[in-house]
Write a structure and sequence with these properties.
With 98 residues, the protein is an alpha+beta fold. It is built from one helix and four strands. The protein has one domain.
């Protein structure tokens, strides 16, 4: 979390999830944080405490967060491990010159 900002947010407010990246020993891992916004007499504030009415929305938000992380992981694996014989995929392949 070098930049100290989430890499993605899923936000059907007032309950949302932020996805953070943590790089450790050359491996990146994502993790999510669920948050709910509320307002008292002043500015909007955030809390991780959720009420019964928030739980169904949170379940959907967390499902979307899981789907986003899984797609990101799959895309990274495809970029780093192209199928055999497919020279058009992968970040380490150079353009062919004729």
């Amino acid at each position: 979390m070098a930049n100290n900002k989430p890499i993605h947010e899923i936000a059907p407010e007032p309950t949302w999830a932020t996805i953070w990246e943590h790089i450790h020993v050359g491996q990146d891992r994502c993790f999510g944080v669920a948050v709910r916004a509320y307002k008292r007499d002043g500015p909007w504030e955030k809390t991780s405490s959720l009420g019964p009415d928030d739980l169904l929305v949170l379940a959907e938000v967390l499902d979307q967060a899981h789907t986003w992380i899984a797609a990101r992981r799959s895309n990274r694996q495809k970029l780093n491990n192209p199928p055999a014989g497919d020279e058009s995929v992968g970040i380490f392949n150079k353009e062919k010159t004729t």
